[in-house]
Structure formats: C-alpha cells, structure tokens
Design the sequence.
C-alpha cells in the first residue's frame, strides 16, 4: 500500500497502525496459540543500549547502515528498521562467535577467495578490527572518524571497501564489508524476533507476508497482488 | 578403553532416508536393528512446528538444521597440486544433521533416472564410440539396470507420496507427462500439484518451442494421502518455507513423516542420537566387520557396538570417509588410477536464467518445494553426444518456491548492491521475477576424488575428508549448450529483462554460493572389484557384512536430484540382504 503515498504519510500510517496491533493480536477469541502472547515491542533505536558494540563502534555502525540502506525513497531505511539492533544481537550470539564454523588452525588466507572464509577472526572480531581500521583510515585521509563524514564521503569509503581499494590493518576489507552488507540486509528482512525489520516495514515495502505460511487458496489466483499484510513469528500483524 | 554395548543383529550408521527404509525392511525379518545418529532427535512436532519454522534467518541463512562445520567438515582444493583448506562455513552444499538428515530440509524433487544413465559408459560406447570419452573421464555403469530397480522406485514413490503426471506407463506415452521418462508400471500416487503463474507461462513458451513440458514430480502431497506404512500426509499448503526447513504441515516427504512413526513402533528397532560413529571395526582377518565404535556426545564416552551386519547410511561423503578411516577397501590413488575408495567423486552442473516482468505478479512466497514445470527434451538420452561435443544432459525447470527475501531477491543485471538504488531495485523487482534453470549431470574424472586430509583434523582427532574437485571442459560444454536452449525460450516470453548465470571455460568450483547438496561417488557400485568399492548390491567387495547406501554409490552424477535413486537402491540392497545374504552370509557376487 505504500507505493502511492509519500514517505512521511507512510510513516504516520505505520505509527498509527502500530498502536492498534496489540488489540488485534491479543484477542483470545481468535484462538491464537500460546506463542502469540504479546505484540512485539520494538525498541527505540535512540534509546537502545548496545551489548556488543562500544560507543565509538556503535556510531560507526549507525553511520554505515544509514548509507547501505538509506531512508531516502519509499520504504524504511536501515535505521528506521532497527538494523543496528539486529547486528548487535547477532554479534553477541553464536554467529558473532563463529560457533558453528570450523575455526581450527592452520589458516591460509593466501588461497583464492573461491575456497570461502579462511580468516582466523570470528565475525565479531572482524567487526571490531574492521571498524577501528576504517576509523584509522578516515582519520588519516579526512581527519575524522567515519561517522562524522558526509553522506557522499561515507559512500565513497564503503564503495572502496567493497571494491578492495582500501587495505585495512589486520583485517580483510572484503570480509568486513561482506559481513556488514550481508548482516544489514538480514536485519532488514529477518523476522522482527531477531531485533530488526521494525514494524515489519521492510516486508510491507515488498509485499512479503512474513510468517503466514499458508496459501493453498491463493495458488490459483494468478497475477494478483496478495491482499493481506504480514504477520511475524510472535503473531503480530502488520 | 571403550565400553562394549549389548550386541545387535544390524547397526545402521546415520538415521536419514536410507537407514529409515532399511530399518523397516530388516525389522520385518525379525532382526534386532539399531540406528546410530550423530545429530539430535527430530520430529515434526516440536522441531518443525509452526510458527518457529517460518524463520528465514535461523533456518534459511544460519542453517540450523544443517551439519555444523565445527563438528564435521571437509577440506577442499581444485587439483592435486594444491594444499586443501577447510570448508569452514557452509555455502555450496548443506549436509543434513539429526534424525531425518537431509530428508528434512530438501525440496522434494523426485526424479527417477533415465534408464541409460545407469549404464552410461556402455550406452556411450555402443552409440557414439569409445573414442568420444575423454581420457581422464572415469564414467562407469552402475551394475544394476532400470528394470531391476523399477519396482523399488515404484514403492519408494508410494512411501514418499509423490505428486506428478506420468508420461510413460508400460511404454504408452501420456499427454502432459514426461514422454522421455523410462517406462513406469504405475502412475504417481497423487495427481500433480496445482500450477502457479510461472508454470503456465513456461508451459506455453516450451510448447511454442516444440518441447514437452510437464509438472516436476514432487514429494509434496497434493491431497490427503496414506502411504503403505500407514503414515498420513496432508495436502501441501504452499507455505513457501521448504528448502532448508522441516515441513510444518506433514506434506513434504521426509523420514519423520513417511517412515519413522511406523518404524519406532517396532519392538526390534531402536535408535540412539548424538552418537558419532568414528570407525567400523574389522575382525583380525579384515574380511568381516565386528561392529562400530562411536562417541556418545552426551557423555563423551567411547562405546563399541557389536553387530553382525554394519550398514553405512550416512551422508554420501561421510560413508566414503568412514570407509577410509576404517580400512574397508583400497583407497583410490589418482596417480596410478588404482584403488577404489574415494574414487569418482562428482557434483552437479547447474545454471539458470532469471526473467523480470514488471507487469506480472508471481507472489514468490507462495510455493511448494517442488513447485515447477520441467522439460526433458535435452536429457541424457535425447542428446547426440558425438555431434554436440559433450557427454551428459539436463532437465530444465521453471520453479517458483522459497521466495523469502533475504536469500531470494533476484535483481536485474547492473542493479546496485546497496544504497538507495538497491532499495529501489528491491521494491520494483520483488515478486516480478521467475527463473528457468538447468539441473545437469556431472561426469566423473580421474583427478576428482576423496581422500584423507594430511593437515586438518576433526574434534576427535581424526583426519578430515579431502575433496579434490573442479569443473571440466565436458561439463562446461553441457551447461553452455543448455544456456543456448534456455535463453531463446526466455526471450520468446518477452520479459522486460533477463539475466543468465552459467559456468564458462574460465569457471572454477566456488564453494561460497549455494549450488546443490547432490554430492555423489566415493564408494561407488559396479561389477568389477578393481574399479568399484561395492558390488551391484551395495555390498563391500572386501568386507562382506558391510553394505553402503546412498549417493556415494553413484559412479557419476545423474542429470537429476538423487533421492529417488538413493531410495530405490536402498530397497534393492534390502531385497538382496533379505532374500540372499541372511540365508548365506558372504559375498553376493564372486570377485
């Protein structure tokens, strides 16, 4: 529905529709199962206290996510979608620790990238070193930490990281940027249970119904837009 | 010193599809059967229950149903001159974990092989001449025929509850089915799934091109169904969470849904989870196995499980790994081209074209796992290998499934990967793309093989399995041929844009993007003990009370997903064990 209303109106709509969600999803007469116990209260990004990131790192993360998925145009930006909250959760958990990965030595980082991740650093360590190294780089080249650069300067630095035009101290720019971009998109589109995709706004933008997972009566209705908004794992409706 | 458990008649290593089916067969003989699974126990409820399964991040992206590399992985390299490095995080293939194995998280694509694929070397030599086979290509016959396996394919399709449209029943070609399939005795147990928009569009285009489209055979139930074991399936609701997920709905065939509920009721069947088999133990003469040694992961204890019959039913490359670790069969040596265990590892050659239509709305989140329309006009039996300059073939599939936004977000070529332009491209294209893919064969080669890695070890101190593999000219030619067939069909559909991804002569195996989990070979079947590890009944040539199930037995890869052949071969081996081996234990085929 967001395609024909402008951004500000859309945000107002999201705010006002949010306020009615608890009444909908808590209606016990709908026979909601026990997992649908309460509407997900998304945190306010400004008030959020990061668990993994320190203050400087958090500033970097906000400034980077804001450029990877900016607010401009229809649809939420990464900050409106609470993507940094998601990334903070992930790095504080098993993903950040590379708990599922084979992390035994020896590490040979000289092989072709075709052989996949070969760094001894966990994703959490990669972020920590990557942020410090980018801030050191921008201090050198622009006299400021990354978070204080203009939008276009930040875009240039991110593009240079992606293209391998910047060598970072002690960490692969390709790995760091790769995690940052992938995790940003994950936080944008993952179920809000993981901390991002606030108000399911990224799902609404593309018309993805989230965790509805039952469409038999819709298979035959070809070339029609699916009419219902998303639900999330907690049973909230968007 | 390992603790010794109470002896059993049969120990099954792993508890996925093959062990479930073999468990049903051998418990019917009154044997005491035990399955050892290294992952956790799993069942539809609670493990795959809605809504927790509808979580793309956890299951689709973080792979929580898959084997964790921290516990078990392989090392990878392109050729024997390189030092292999570990496959540290999952990408190109996703081995399953826990009860049900990869049978939990597959899509349900249920293909029988074409008859000539089972005797590929003979077929090529008879029809095109030996000289067209490249020197380093080591393709072989399976040593079992389609006719031998037909009743077992038929039964496995009934166990799984496959939905589809038969194209050839006893030689009679049926309109709307696959006219190039080998003759079947019976139709599929259920009618084909409902068709989605992409099915209709591809069907029209394929017919205009003179091809023969049909619904992909789907182990996704199209209606309520009870299988021969009394297990019940409900109609698939096209939930859109299939590949990488357990089925929330008792609709996708899996060992849990189709077999284990019945199997667990049998008093002579038991299973233990979190038991990691490290080795098959052999008697002093090396000619028979005495049982297996495993680590009970819950206690850390090492346990010896005595058994009269040891059946390896783990994932394909784990079977080969266990044989190498246990000294069953001679390890393959690519330099001398001798030995058999580890020989003929093969993968799968895939490619595809994505079509973008601004004016069409595909609702990609609505889809069964095997929701697709296929053509087999360019199958192995349809191609003149001498004329085209390659050996192999492919099915072409137009599928619409698993349209979750993190991992399924096709964008037109040239779209930015981030920034405002990316967001705009996502908004404009999600739901407006469909694809036509080529799922093709992969031949086997002298220098594509499995061996023990000299440098890297698993958490128990055992060497990791090393995969030496790269793409070869023959298979690149095959996929380029398919590109040449798919792109004109795509063009004829008048998309706003399309983009293609096919391997080229410059391509090397890239372990990062997902390709397929159809790893085959390493413990191949055949008629000659000097060129195969197993005889045509999947029995080790060297240790007669060891049978090895699964796609490790394929001497090269089919143009298809492997599951139906894996299941068919399991029933075939079970029949030989029940009717021949149990009466007179020993080699079923004279070496």
Sequence:
């Amino acid at each position: 529905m967001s395609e024909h209303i402008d951004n500000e109106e859309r945000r107002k709509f999201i705010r006002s529709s949010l306020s009615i969600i608890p009444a909908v999803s808590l209606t016990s007469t709908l026979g909601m199962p026990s997992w649908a116990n309460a509407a997900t209260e998304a945190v306010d990004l400004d008030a959020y206290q990061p668990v993994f990131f320190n203050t400087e790192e958090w500033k970097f993360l906000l400034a980077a996510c804001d450029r990877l998925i900016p607010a401009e145009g229809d649809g939420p930006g990464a900050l409106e979608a609470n993507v940094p909250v998601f990334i903070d959760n992930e790095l504080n958990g098993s993903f950040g620790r590379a708990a599922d990965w084979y992390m035994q030595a020896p590490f040979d980082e000289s092989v072709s990238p075709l052989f996949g991740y070969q760094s001894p650093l966990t994703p959490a360590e990669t972020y920590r070193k990557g942020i410090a190294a980018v801030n050191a780089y921008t201090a050198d080249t622009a006299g400021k930490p990354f978070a204080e650069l203009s939008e276009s300067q930040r875009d240039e630095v991110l593009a240079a990281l992606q293209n391998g035009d910047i060598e970072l101290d002690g960490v692969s720019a390709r790995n760091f940027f790769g995690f940052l971009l992938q995790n940003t998109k994950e936080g944008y589109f993952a179920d809000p249970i993981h901390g991002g995709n606030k108000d399911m706004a990224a799902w609404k933008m593309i018309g993805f119904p989230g965790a509805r997972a039952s469409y038999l009566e819709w298979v035959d209705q070809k070339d029609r837009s699916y009419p219902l908004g998303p639900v999330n794992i907690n049973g909230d409706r968007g | 010193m390992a603790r010794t458990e109470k002896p059993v008649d049969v120990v099954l290593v792993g508890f996925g599809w093959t062990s479930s089916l073999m468990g049903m067969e051998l418990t019917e003989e009154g044997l005491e059967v035990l399955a050892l699974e290294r992952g956790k126990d799993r069942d539809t409820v609670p493990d795959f229950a809605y809504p927790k399964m509808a979580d793309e991040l956890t299951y689709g992206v973080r792979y929580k149903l898959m084997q964790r590399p921290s516990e078990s992985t392989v090392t990878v390299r392109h050729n024997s001159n390189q030092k292999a490095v570990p496959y540290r995080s999952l990408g190109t293939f996703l081995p399953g974990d826990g009860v049900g194995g990869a049978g939990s998280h597959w899509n349900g694509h249920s293909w029988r092989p074409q008859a000539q694929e089972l005797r590929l070397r003979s077929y090529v030599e008879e029809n095109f001449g030996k000289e067209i086979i490249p020197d380093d290509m080591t393709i072989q016959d399976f040593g079992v025929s389609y006719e031998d396996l037909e009743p077992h394919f038929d039964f496995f399709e009934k166990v799984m509850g496959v939905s589809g449209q038969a194209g050839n029943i006893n030689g009679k070609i049926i309109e709307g089915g696959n006219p190039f399939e080998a003759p079947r005795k019976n139709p599929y147990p259920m009618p084909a799934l409902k068709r989605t928009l992409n099915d209709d569009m591809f069907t029209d285009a394929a017919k205009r091109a003179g091809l023969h489209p049909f619904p992909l055979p789907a182990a996704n139930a199209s209606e309520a169904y009870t299988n021969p074991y009394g297990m019940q399936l409900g109609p698939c609701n096209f939930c859109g969470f299939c590949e990488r997920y357990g089925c929330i709905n008792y609709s996708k065939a899996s060992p849990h849904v189709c077999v284990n509920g019945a199997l667990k009721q049998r008093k002579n069947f038991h299973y233990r989870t979190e038991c990691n088999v490290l080795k098959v133990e052999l008697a002093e003469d090396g000619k028979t196995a005495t049982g297996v040694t495993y680590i009970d992961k819950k206690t850390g204890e090492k346990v010896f499980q005595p058994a009269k019959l040891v059946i390896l039913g783990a994932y394909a490359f784990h079977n080969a790994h266990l044989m190498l670790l246990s000294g069953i069969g001679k390890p393959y040596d690519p330099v001398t081209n001798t030995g058999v265990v580890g020989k003929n590892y093969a993968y799968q050659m895939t490619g595809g074209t994505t079509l973008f239509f601004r004016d069409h709305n595909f609702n990609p989140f609505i889809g069964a796992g095997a929701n697709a329309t296929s053509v087999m006009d360019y199958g192995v039996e349809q191609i003149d290998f001498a004329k085209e300059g390659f050996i192999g073939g492919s099915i072409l599939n137009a599928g619409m499934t698993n349209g979750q936004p993190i991992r399924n977000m096709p964008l037109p070529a040239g779209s930015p990967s981030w920034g405002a332009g990316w967001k705009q491209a996502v908004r404009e294209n999600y739901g407006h793309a469909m694809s036509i893919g080529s799922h093709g064969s992969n031949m086997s080669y002298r220098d594509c093989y499995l061996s023990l890695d000299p440098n890297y070890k698993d958490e128990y101190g055992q060497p990791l399995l090393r995969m030496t593999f790269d793409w070869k000219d023959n298979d690149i030619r095959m996929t380029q041929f398919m590109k040449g067939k798919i792109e004109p069909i795509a063009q004829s559909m008048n998309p706003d844009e399309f983009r293609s991804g096919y391997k080229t002569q410059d391509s090397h195996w890239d372990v990062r993007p997902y390709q397929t989990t159809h790893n085959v070979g390493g413990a191949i079947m055949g008629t000659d003990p000097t060129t195969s590890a197993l005889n045509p009944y999947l029995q080790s040539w060297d240790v007669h009370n060891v049978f090895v199930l699964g796609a490790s037995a394929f001497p090269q890869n089919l143009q298809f997903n492997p599951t139906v052949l894996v299941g068919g071969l399991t029933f075939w081996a079970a029949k030989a064990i029940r009717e021949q081996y149990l009466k007179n234990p020993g080699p079923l085929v004279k070496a």
DSSP finds seven helices and no strands in chain A. Residues 2-218 of chain A form one domain. Confidence is low (pLDDT under 50) at residues 1-38 of chain A. Residues 22 and 53 of chain A are 31 Å apart (CA to CA).
